[in-house]
Amino acid sequence: MGLVAITSAADQDNPGSGGALQKPGYCQTGMNYHAGVSFGRVIHADRYLLVNPADRTWNFFWGDDGAPPAFNIARQKTLAAMEKAAGQVAYL
């Protein structure tokens, strides 16, 4: 799709959301403190990043430093998810 990276967040009160983001290759990068309020309680959210796994974009994003090991593992998850989706999803 031409994107370099996608950022997302998942409320810490909903650990299933974070797990769902990690399956296709999102990598946790930090936390958004006081991301919101629910029923009078402050909510924190975990931040996630998914970097486009295409060689050109991947190399551009990480530059000469190279990707941290956790992102290399995440990249493999993204590539596997894309391969699985290739026969089931039409990219417009």
Description of the molecule:
By secondary structure, the protein is of the alpha+beta class. 37% of the residues lie in helices and 33% in strands. Strand 2 (27-38) and strand 3 form a beta hairpin. The longest helix has 18 residues, at 69-86.
Q: Main attributes?
A:
alpha+beta, 37% helix, 92 residues, three-stranded antiparallel beta sheet
Helix and strand arrangement:
Blueprint: E1 5-11, H1 15-22, E2 27-38, E3 41-51, H2 55-62, H3 69-86
Antiparallel strand pairs: 1-3, 2-3
Element pattern in H and E: EHEEHH
Helical residue percent band: 25-40%
Low-pLDDT sequence parts: none
Number of strands: 3
Shape: globular
Strand order of the largest sheet: 1-3-2
Short description:
The chain is α+β, with helices and mostly antiparallel strands and 92 residues long.
